[in-house]
């Protein structure tokens, strides 16, 4: 899937400045690049926490989509997030991976880094595997 095709899949991806970087099939890990726009910044000067969760949700979800050859998409039951450092406007790197995938439940993990490689936030999700909208499944 190209960067352009990924961005067309959902309008929210344009808002977050999502760019596909890579997928490691053996690790079931995806790397996405984001650009946090100035409009995401709070009066404290950092990206609003719910929007940070959105970046993490995106990388976790796409890890499962790619791991299932774009046939399934996760439906979140829960997401847990830990903010480690302030997330500023500008370039970000997200890594999402499938921890365990079953027929009924999927366990996902995500991390968000700044351009220098500093860990900014981590997340986990428990989700249900569902047919991906628009897939042949």
TrEMBL record:
Pfam name, any one: 4HBT
- A single GO molecular function, which one? acyl-CoA hydrolase activity
> Which keywords does the record carry?
Hydrolase
Q: Where is the Thioesterase domain?
A: 45-120
The record ties this protein, via InterPro entries, to:
HotDog_dom_sf, PAAI_dom, Thioestr_dom
- The keyword Hydrolase appears for this protein: yes
**Statement: the UniProt record of this protein carries the keyword Hydrolase:** yes
NCBIfam families (alphabetical) = unchar_dom_1 (TIGR00369)
Protein's name according to its UniProt entry: Uncharacterized domain 1-containing protein
């Amino acid at each position: 899937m190209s960067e352009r095709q990924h961005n067309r899949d959902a309008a929210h991806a344009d808002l977050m400045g999502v760019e596909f970087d890579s997928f490691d099939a053996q690790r079931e890990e995806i790397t996405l690049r984001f650009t946090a726009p100035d409009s995401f910044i709070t009066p404290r000067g950092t990206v609003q926490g719910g929007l940070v969760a959105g970046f993490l949700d995106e990388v976790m979800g796409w890890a499962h989509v790619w791991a299932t050859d774009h046939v399934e998409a996760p439906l979140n039951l829960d997401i847990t997030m830990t903010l480690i450092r302030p997330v500023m406007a500008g370039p970000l790197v997200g890594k999402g991976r499938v921890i365990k995938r079953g027929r009924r439940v999927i366990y996902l993990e995500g991390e968000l880094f700044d351009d220098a490689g500093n860990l900014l936030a981590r997340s986990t999700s428990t989700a249900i595997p569902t047919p991906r909208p628009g897939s042949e499944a």
